[in-house]
Design brief:
It comes from Streptomyces scopuliridis RB72. Helices cover about 35% and strands about 25% of the residues. By secondary structure, it is α/β, with parallel strands linked by helices. Helix 4 packs across helix 5 and helix 7 runs parallel beside helix 8. The longest helix has 13 residues. The two termini are about 25 Å apart.
Length: about 230
Amino acid sequence: MEVSALATKLRVAKETVRRDLHALEGHGLVRRTHGGAYPVESAGFETTLAVRTTRLVPQKSRIAAAAADLLGDAETVFVDEGFTPQLVAEALPRDRQLTVVTASLAVATALAEAEKIAVLLLGGRVRGSTMATVDHWTTRMLSDFVIDLAYVGANGISREYGLTTPDPAVSEVKAQAMRSARRRVFAGIHTKFGAVSFCRFAEVGDFESIVTDAGLPSAEAQRYSLLGPQVIRV
């Protein structure tokens, strides 16, 4: 929400809204941004896939294209749930043989008609908010694969706490994808950096590359790169 919109809606001064947002940020409930704030995703709050498709779409599209360029000679690929990974899937080349493993119904649908791409949809319980499968059926099936490259998303990434997500069931799928993959790429918008959610599934140093947008300051990108991965800002 923007400060001006909140002030109008609540019929209070903008300075009152700014003070309240500062207090909420201190409790870890929101992240401040220029002119407003957005909620931090936690065990009790997670945005839906439908909401994610409306936010920062141009930046997410650039990130996805840059992440897809890191495919290299990979023949088997894991694509995570979430809107940015979905865009990565859509940016994958259609002129070569690929096998894509995913828990995301949206990713599977996006690639189903690609003639040279074989899609393996992981079974399990479908979470309505993200339209992706979870639980032991999903992780058991995923554990049987050795994957060349995993494109992984997260609700938050920080140098101190690594990569996190609100739901333990989702965290287990992501953790298994990390274990199953030889190479790992994180693709995510700059607003995820510094955010911390409930369940940790990976460390920053577990990734070969981190792809984000130029909204992440170059100095902060350098701090992440010191932990191991190449950091690409687009």
